[in-house]
Amino acid sequence: MPSSAAACHRHGRCSGQSLLATRQRRLLFRGDGAYANRVVLESLNFAAQAQFTNHLADGHPFGLPIIFLVCNNHYGMTHRSDDEVMGIERMARRAAGFADNNMHSEIVNGMNVLAVRDAVLRATKLCHEGKGPVFLDVDCYATGPFA
Fold first, then answer.
1. How far are the Cα atoms of 25, 99, 112 from residue 16, in angstroms, in the given order?
2. Residues 6+ apart with CB under 8 A from 55
3. Contacts of 128 (CB under 8 A, 6+ apart)
4. How far apart, in whole angstroms, are the C-alpha atoms of residue 54 and residue 16?
5. For the chain, which terminus, N or C, has the lower number of CB atoms within 10 Å?
6. Residue 118 to residues 28, 101, 108, 113, 132: CA-CA distances in angstroms?
7. Sheet-wide strand order for 66-72
8. What is the dihedral of CA 72, 77, 83, 85, to 10 degrees?
């Protein structure tokens, strides 16, 4: 499934799982280039809607149990993502603009497997508590060609 389309499917499933009160959570891995795509940005917007957690939630507030994990190697397919075509230096800033709680955005050292593990565990805990979505900007540098 194309990168951007998967984002829509994931937040749709998370909405249903929250309404059905399941304990399942979703982790969406995408590269930083995908976060310049309209469909992925719409997914962030949908996931952070206030109606899931405010008075409109009809006494059952929940945050979508989804973790957006950006594998950020700082390059899209044809360009440098940060500082060149994104208009921001860090992907975490983009997510912070979607919600008053900054979507629990966090920058993580992706070259340290234990730091990534800890960040995902923290994000999972937030999702289990109904405080999702969570956005992890994981720095991971390419060690070879990827195209």
1. 11, 21, 34
2. none
3. 23, 25, 65
4. 18
5. C
6. 17, 20, 9, 9, 16
7. 26-31, 66-72, 134-139, 106-109
8. -130
In CATH, the architecture of 3-139 is 3-Layer(aba) Sandwich (3.40)
Instruction: Tell me the domain boundaries of the chain.
Output: 3-139
Cα–Cα distance, 135 to 94 (Å, whole number) = 10
Residues 137 and 70: beta-carbon distance below 8 Å? yes
Q: Quote the tokens at residue 47.
A: 């996931």
Per-residue confidence in pLDDT tens, the chain, 147 aa: 444 445 544 445 545 554 445 555 677 777 777 777 778 888 888 888 887 778 887 777 777 888 999 888 877 666 666 666 677 778 888 888 888 888 999 999 999 999 999 999 999 999 888 888 999 999 988 766 655
8 Å CB contact between 13 and 26: yes
The residue written with tokens 């900007």 in the block is 137
Give the CA distances from residue 127 to residues 38, 62, 88, 89, 123, in Å, rounded to whole numbers and listed in that order: 24, 9, 27, 27, 6
